[in-house]
Amino acid sequence: MSRAYRHNLNGSTLERGAPQLDARNVEIAFGGVRALDDVSLQVQQGEIHAIIGPNGAGKTSLLNCTSGLYRPQRGSIVLHTGDGKQHELTKARPARIARWRVARSFQNIELFKHMTVLENLLLGRHVHMRHGVLRSLAWFGPARSQEMKHRELVEEVVDFLEIEPVRTKPVGTLAYGLQKRVELGRALCMQPAILLLDEPMAGMNAEEKEDMARYILDVNELAGVTVVLIEHDMGVVMDISHRVTVLDFGKVIAHGPPAEVSRHPDVIRAYLGEAHAVVEADA
Amino acid sequence: MTDAAVAVAVAAAQAPTAPEVPTPEATLPQLLRELAARHGDRRHALREKRYGIWQPHTWADYQGRVRSFACGLAAMGFERGETLAILGDNRPEWVIAELAAQSLGGRSLGLYPEGIVEEVEHVLAHAQVQFVVAEDQEQVDKLVELEHAGRLPTVEHVVFYDPRGLERYEHPFLIGFTEVEARGRGEDGEHPGWWEEQVDRGRPDDVAILCTTSGTTGKPKLAMLSHRNLLSMGASLMSIDPIETDDEFLSFLPLAWIGEQMIAMACALQAGFALNFPESAATQQADLREIGPRVMFSPPRIWESLLSQVQVRVGDAGWAKRRAFEWGIGVGRRYATARLRGGKPSAGLSALHLLAEFVALRPVREQLGLTRIRRAYTGGAPLGPDVFEFFHAIGVNLKQIYGQTEICGIAVIHRDGDVKFNTVGTGIPGTEARIADDGEIQLRSPAVFQGYDRNDEATVEALHDGWLHTGDAGYVDEDGHLVVIDRAKDVLEAPDGTRFSPAFVENKLKFSPNVMEAVSFGGGDRPYVAAMICIDADNVGTWAEREHLGYTTYTDLAQKPEVYDLIAEYVSRANEDLPDGARVRRFVLLHKQLDADDEEMTRTRKVRRGLIGRRYDDIIEALYADVDDVTIRNVVTYQDGTRVERPITLRIRSMDGSETAEPRDGKPQPGGSA
Prior knowledge:
The complex is a heterodimer. Chain A is built from eleven helices and ten strands. Chain A is an alpha/beta fold. A six-stranded mixed β-sheet of chain A has the order 6-7-8-3-9-10, with helices on both faces. In chain A, a hairpin with a 2-residue loop joins β1 and β2 (about 35-45). Chain B folds into three domains: about 30-205 and about 245-295, ANL, N-terminal domain (Rossmann fold, 3-Layer(aba) Sandwich); about 300-490, ANL, N-terminal domain (Rossmann fold, 3-Layer(aba) Sandwich); about 490-660, ANL, C-terminal domain (GMP Synthetase, Chain A, domain 3, 2-Layer Sandwich), CATH 3.30.300.30. Helices cover about 35% and strands about 20% of the residues of chain B. Chains A and B meet through α5 of A and loops of B.
């Protein structure tokens, strides 16, 4: 009769603080544009790691390399899992990477608009479904009990993100802020080892941002999930992240705790728009 | 004074001394034990929606958990006569904790979950509570904050039932509900029969609950209600309005409120029907539709908000739907009026009504989740006659209940087929009512409380020879119905001598879906009635969007001249129904909503008139001066303690003088519009 959650949303078995994601010398170029130039960064289990930088700095490219959408031309991105294994993400296909429990949300909402919130969330369980098409079609027996198990976890995510009132509504009819929350929910349903969020607060009003920040903190503090976050709102980033990496024109110009990073002269220059100074440094 | 009081047999249908309904000689936990023995695992006692599914407790489960939790409490040192405070939303654990404390001869004390820290502190300190059951992190945080500040001298144990977010709390007074239950099961196994013995020792005259009074005038007092009080009230109510074992009840109003205790405990444990707890506040409406309760008791604000919902949705509907609705409601109104006082509508009207039921009335009931409702009650504050009429028109048998916490919430009620919108009906069996010389309503019944906890002075004031002095002014009308005017001290006298109730004026104004709250002033040396109105942010916001009216904040929206025009329209409509002396001549739209956290309202959302009068005295002064606006200083305190003060100018609107009577006594009539 306990009200505690029965499922652990954190898919990582690593110790808190152990290195989890290790990117080294990653490089990718599109034609003449160097989107990422010798980028290295380390993410530890259990932290919120923010990646910031001006438009076109290469933030999303880095996330895409991590989740397998892009193939970098040089460098490596290694994922450590709790069983002592290491996986090279730059050589794996996206579906494979998802099985290693790297979950992500997108800058533009990528949900199935005509399906309900529950159906979208259940999709997040797809990597964990073990029965073939035929067996699932027959539904009775093992497929049924499996679906019930998955629904149970999905309902805990619904409770966690407080989306009970919209559970059976088609996603397309929901307010923007809620859709973003559903997308976070779908990523959580994977029981991710690491959660990549691409601008989860873009286009939100102050109140929605505050809510979203609260949920991201809950995901991290209560569920213990590692979060890698791209965000433009410096206020949010400085408030909630443990560590910040700053990219500018495809290069890492600073990294460290938020207080330190915000005092870094290069960061101030990049953000306060002393454009030519940066261009000089780049050239 | 008591001798001079004139006794009036309010219960006209009964003999002057209304026969008492037999009340079970038992305590609430003893009734639970009987029900568990009778129904065991065959019937559901509680249901809670969790994870999208209604999760049941059978009567045997219910008793089992009460038993374990009680044994656990006893092992932690809970003794007879002690008080267990409960702080949280409606969940099975709430009622389980209450019955567990009572089974040990203790009392339960419900606190409103949205109460702020100071309120929690006041009640816990006053009742010298050692054991608190708190729902979750939100509630535990309040107690931890008080404890750190050394403001919880008596509390020794805090039992929480939702552990999420509390994993890293290491306060020594914290313990989980399931842990207490587990400990209780152990103790129970070692001392079989001990719990039964404790339940047997309970007497009907033991105090069962301490119930906070709403406290419109100051800090809430704690009314002591015995098992006999609660059960006699429940038995009397059900003798006129039976509730069946198969009936369902959705428990969504605070269990700290006497109205919820009345149905969820006093009636449910006698009739044996199931309680259903909604998933969250946001899903209440959907959960209501799923359960389809047969009986419902809510304060006016719930009925008002249901009506607003309908009004707004009809406003948004297409032309054809709107016409169908308006026609249907018109027929429903005529049909209801014909039947209200036990009459019979004509055959033609009945036929029309059948059609209206099909095209308009039933669909509305369905949307609201009221399809299966047999009886609905409103109580706690007066409900506007227009709201009343609407619900009868759509076929909901809505009836007024009048009572106070001190008389277990109910003493007077409308009978089926004898409903008048401006009265509260007649006394329930066993209740005597009389009107004192000064117009005060006085009540006597077996449900009259045992006194206030640790406050003899207030008890002496409220109780004389078993008569409860309600402090309400009222009279008995020609049909023997009791009419409640208002709190006696609130009744005002207009310059022309008509006595009127501010609440009546305010209810007229609140009929508009755009008006959230209204406070009216007048009487004494004030030459006319003026009102302070809070707009309904959602509904006015939707309207503004439709009108392409841009706005930023609530304050900004409230001060738009267009919004003033909108509200003025409703005020003039309300004025048409009001006696001349009580018409609203000037009004102001307040820059904020009245809030219980600011102490402007009670937790049951009753306006604290005195405090508002003092806090906004500059606005009220301007309402009676020859000015078009008033500038007030608004102080905002942020969480980190910084305070920002900024001036806000509020418009004051005078109602057009042409529709009101000539000024009297040569007093200047404020004219023109702001």
